[in-house]
Amino acid sequence: MGNSYAGQLKSARFEEALHNSIEASLRCSSVVPRPIFSQLYLDPDQHPFSSAANEMEDDEDDEEMSESNSPPIPYSQKPAPEGSCTTDGFCQAGKDLRLVSLCMEQIDIPAGFLLVGAKSPNLPEHILVCAVDKRFLPDDHGKNALLGFSGNCIGCGERGFRYFTEFSNHINLKLTTQPKKQKHLKYYLVRSSQGVLSKGPLICWKVIWKGPQSVSPC
Fold first, then answer.
1. Which of 162, 171, 163, 159 shows the shortest CA–CA distance to 97?
2. How do 185-191 and 208-210 pair as beta strands?
3. What separation, in Å, do the N-terminal and C-terminal C-alpha atoms of the chain show?
4. How do residues 169-211 score in pLDDT, each as one tens digit?
5. Rg, Å, the chain Cα set
6. Cα separations (Å) of 163 from 27, 132, 169, 179, 210?
7. Are the C-beta atoms of 170 and 91 separated by less than 8 Å?
């Protein structure tokens, strides 16, 4: 079973590296993406079979649980279109995306989409509300998320974002490392019986290997 799991893990890492390389090539005109071979085999300290998982706090930015151990890919954000809003917490159309402002709003989303919370490094105390196609989100075991991204801006209503890079630009995350949905999409959002939208459980992006059974860090 160990060999089977190792093969699945290597395949998953190859798919992730390939996706990151393609997206970096398409979206970053000033940065040369790292070769896939070096991402897979030349990264130091790759230890996929961890014997224990550190406990995660709700507000803890533990990147090892939400993305691979690969070194951050340098990222030069594309300048916002002329006249666009660049205020943290707002999309480029100037619409407020902060959960604290939208918690009582009725938000219409397409069938098959879920409301999730994104974290901006410039607004650590806030959660930004996003609509994401659930096929690109993991199940309760941290598996079966399709590669890539499909999301909508719930502020201005713009739909059809096919790359998390362009989506992160649109919602003004202002990142300095390669945008990854696993790193910045943090929480499911849930609505209470009183109709208040609030932070729900962590999105479980990864499974920690602990011998015969894999255990979710979430």
1. 171
2. unpaired
3. 23
4. 999 998 888 889 999 999 999 999 999 999 999 999 875 444 4
5. 18
6. 9, 11, 10, 10, 33
7. yes
Q: Cα–Cα distance between 205 and 145 in angstroms, integer? A: 8
Find the domain containing 210 and state its range: 2-215
Number of separate domains in the chain? 1
d(CA 129, CA 107): 10
Query: For the whole prediction, is pTM greater than 0.85?
Result: no
Instruction: Report which of 159, 198, 167 is spatially closest to residue 184, judged by C-alpha positions.
Output: 167
User: Any idea of the CA torsion for 189, 194, 195, 201, to the nearest 10 degrees?
Assistant: 0
Query: Can you read off the two tokens belonging to residue 110?
Result: 């397409």
Q: 166: left (phi > 0), else alpha (psi -120 to 50), else beta?
A: alpha
Q: Is the dihedral of CA 170, 171, 174, 176 positive or negative?
A: negative
